[in-house]
Amino acid sequence: MHMNFSQEIQKVKWDDVLLTIKNTSNADVLHALNSENRNFSNFIALLSPAAGNYIEEMAQLAHQITVQKFGKIIQMYAPVYVSSECTNACVYCGFNRNNKIDRKTLSVEEVISEGKKLHEQGFRHVLLVSGESPAHAPVEYFSQIVRHLKPLFASISIEVYPMDTDSYAKLIKNGVDGLTIYQETYDPVQYQQVHQAGKKKDYNWRLDTPDRGGCAGFRRINIGSLLGLSDWRTDGAFTGLHASFLAKKYWKSHICVSFPRLQPAEGGYKPEFQVTDAQLVQLLCAMRIWLPDAGIVLSTREPKTFRDNLVPLGITQMSAGSKTAPGGYTLKYKLDNQFNISDNRSPEEVALMIESRVYEPVWKDWDAAIL
Asked: Which CATH number fits domain 61-370: 3.40.50.1170, 3.90.226.10, 3.20.20.70, 3.40.120.10?
């Protein structure tokens, strides 16, 4: 029988995971660190308050695993925001349909200009991002954009509204190879509270988006939860469970995990659950130990010194020089951002920082010709 993650997740209750995390002992953490074949319980132990005492050991292990699996490289990418139109009312997002902001959907020509600018900066991996409004940015719009951008980039990913499998297959045919989709939070109760209106209120439709992407055949699928919406340890546990499910089921796709930490947004939103730097480090290291083969992605939401220090702990992909408004790279007038960037360095400066840590910034890690 064809099982999607929305069926799989029924076996695991949010409150049970929360309780297990709270009741984890030091012995459980040590057992998790020293296990050969780790299971979900070991991963949960590494997310616990008790594991906070073993951050140093976790960091060393995460570093070892990453170097062994990926070498000392960091893949560079940049987002291209193409539209800030949105039909959803998500309380934490600057593009919330109830916010009075200047909205814009770039023309195909404007997106090409953005692409050329990033290509000049050295990028060969881009992520197309839009608010969730299929009427303003239909599948055909993305297909057109991708056909034009394909000669410039080795890899084009999308972070847009959830689609059906056929639409994804169409985009893949036109040259998209990666899908990014965050569940935002895996807690079904909290999910309904922060998504107040729009198609996004449908928890399961969103939850099964990576499954539809896997069926369509994306080369890379990137998931994550928005840290700050719910208890980060429990959301982290479900993110790891989801990633491991996808990695087993869609073994031809490379599964990646992002760790977006919420920043205050337009409309006065403040994250309800604080996540400290030390906690984010713990989550990142736990995820690397649990998923040795997963890509781990870090965006410019995080401040520069903190990003610099995370390089050796398991990161495999980093954005640089990001703009989070449509036309942010080339348009003369500035539009409202989806969220504020904390690391404002140029791509070149970020690359030099990576080199200073004796890592190699990679602008292009593969070519379609290889296939």
From this structure: 3.20.20.70
